Amino acid sequence: MTAETSAAPGGFEMAPRAAMFRSVDALSSLATPAPPKAPGRSLHRFANPGRFLRLAGALQPWLTAGGLILTAAGLVWGLVVAPADWQQGDAVRIMYVHVPAAWLASAGYLGLAVCSVLSLVWRHPLADLAAAEIGPVGAAFTGICLATGSLWGKPMWGAWWVWDARLTSVLVLFFLYLGHIALIRAFDDPTRGYRAGAILALVGVVNLPIIKFSVDWWNTLHQPATISLTGAPSMYLGMLWPLALTALGYTLVFAALVTARTRAAVMERRIRALLMAAAAREDGAVQVAA
Amino acid sequence: MTHLPYIAAAYALAVLVPAAYGLAAMRRLRLARTRLAALDPRPARRETRRETRR
Fold it and tell me: What is the pTM of this model?
């Protein structure tokens, strides 16, 4: 048990308890056949804050370095090396920041929804914290997508904004992110805030296919998709490579930001717990003295 | 280069916003680590030992 406790850098009480449960499980498995594993049970291996901090701490430098290098390479390639478009001129270079931001705005929301399912169905303790940290980062990337799209639209369409189905559905996504951020902070009891936020996140998932297929379902000013998972891309390879690099780099930057924020949130929760325990001890001491 | 102001503004936004978020996250992480080390020095000691071993 001592070895188990020292292995957890968080120093949290869950590690020795987990060891105890494991030994009880081992004894019971001798007497009776093992019951089928409940889905999501293995997910709780990562519910231990110490294990999460250890894993996230090891991943963090790689995510950060990889994200910075790939993003920088993709942006320089897109800005300097990639050719201009025959129709749009150099304004097409905005694509190398706009499209990855748009992909991550949707992917981030999908991550938020997955965390919400983990929280509502399996009560995963870290899923709530991760969802709370994905929200602001996702909102920032959605903001980048909207702003860069506007900067691309002005010279190409002659307008900063049009109430086009694609633009409007992405604006709804931005408001969903803001609503999620506001909702989880709106309750005195954080658990209720997390539950309400998780429900909003799941309701908002319906917007993701609307964003994806809006250019096919409606007659939009926004162009249809040039890259799909099933067909060959209808884009010149000299433009596709920097776009792929920036998209991968931005994805790693997104992951690095969420990981760093979640690590900080786990530590802050531990700090709150320690302070509350200290305050309770002081209260007890005062009552005994009185 | 055509449309330079639009391109420059888009790239500046795309770089500065994540950079600001990254700096804020680093600051928050450092602050949380310092406060946690002050309240509960065991994990911090272990982390320092691991860093030294590397």
Answer: 0.81
